[in-house]
Amino acid sequence: LLPKKVTIIEVGPRDGLQNEKNFIPTAVKIDFITRLQESGLQEMELTSFVSPKWVPQMSDATDIISSCLNMKTRNIVLIPNRKGMERILLTPCRAVAVFVGVSDEFNKRNINKTTADSMKEVLPAIIALKGKGYFVRACISTAFYCPYKGKIAEADTIKLCQQFINAGADELSVADTIGMASPNESFSLFSKLRERFPHHMITAHFHDTRKMGLANIYAALEAGIIRFDTSAAGLGGCPFAKGATGNVATEDVVYMLSRMGIETGVDLEKIVSAIDVIRPHLSRPIESAFYRLHSST
Ligand code: HMG
Ligand code: MG
């Protein structure tokens, strides 16, 4: 039985933009984010507190936070380590995402640490943030495949998820970082996670590298998942995952769900107007079908 309503978590301002080579002016990002917030999206990854040397595009995180925090949307900021937590504590932001890869090979390239060493830093941070009343989301990268190691065992992904839950995380965002999962792998892993953690938010984060994003979302819906990370215009990708491309596009997902009679509360015209603002600053063409058919520019 499919749900009547699902939640879309917009990751365009963070995952979407972090993979853009040219620095996008902060004012343009703020306009993009504001339009996305006005579209009815309830939750959004706003930016990340990572090293400006590793990801220069996110170096304006403090300015983005001070201009874009609003009461209507859950605005989430990503942090990779203790330093990121210290930076969060100086802002009014109250929702945080930590991110760790199941695969050591990937995690070393992304965060310069093994998975175990990252967890040693991140789990105490989660406990501290929960103690202060923060909403904590845990993003699990390479949950299906690693660009360096290949297939990841479901048991390894579930074990990492369990550690996050034990530390008090509110949400698991489980990611197909390089868009290699098939719909049956999506159904299998998400069914197991749904059963194992029945009282937690479980979110599916699909990159659309091989155009299996919508099919994987359908499979995850059948497994009982009702939360999806998507990116306006299908932008995105992790700069440290070889071959990674964008997330499944918000407008294509919202369109599919609306055709299935599943409510998201998202106004597609407003999403198109947000994309119109960011589009002249992008280094690659927009591939989402909905945008191609509906853009006025
Ligand atoms: P490192 O070089 O090992 O760090 O990088 P370090 O601790 O040795 O510090 C080096 C410098 O970075 C120092 O500055 C630190 O202060 C600074 P310096 O003294 O040289 O001027 N630094 C920081 N600055 C700002 N914020 C911080 C921070 N930490 C240290 N939080 C580090 C380690 C984790 C910093 C680096 O590897 C990094 O920034 N990585 C982030 C990579 C990233 O952003 N990846 C993309 C997001 S994850 C993703 O996209 C996947 C996801 O979408 C799910 C999926 O699809 O799989 C979530
Ligand atoms: Mg991602």
Automatic annotation (TrEMBL):
The keyword Transmembrane helix does not apply. Residues 6-272 form the Pyruvate carboxyltransferase domain. GO terms for molecular function: hydroxymethylglutaryl-CoA lyase activity; metal ion binding. Keywords: Lyase, Metal-binding. CDD domains: DRE_TIM_HMGL. InterPro entries: Aldolase_TIM, HMGL, PYR_CT. Transmembrane segments: none annotated. Belongs to the HMG-CoA lyase family. This is Hydroxymethylglutaryl-CoA lyase. It comes from Niallia endozanthoxylica. The lineage of its organism: Bacteria, Bacillati, Bacillota, Bacilli, Bacillales.
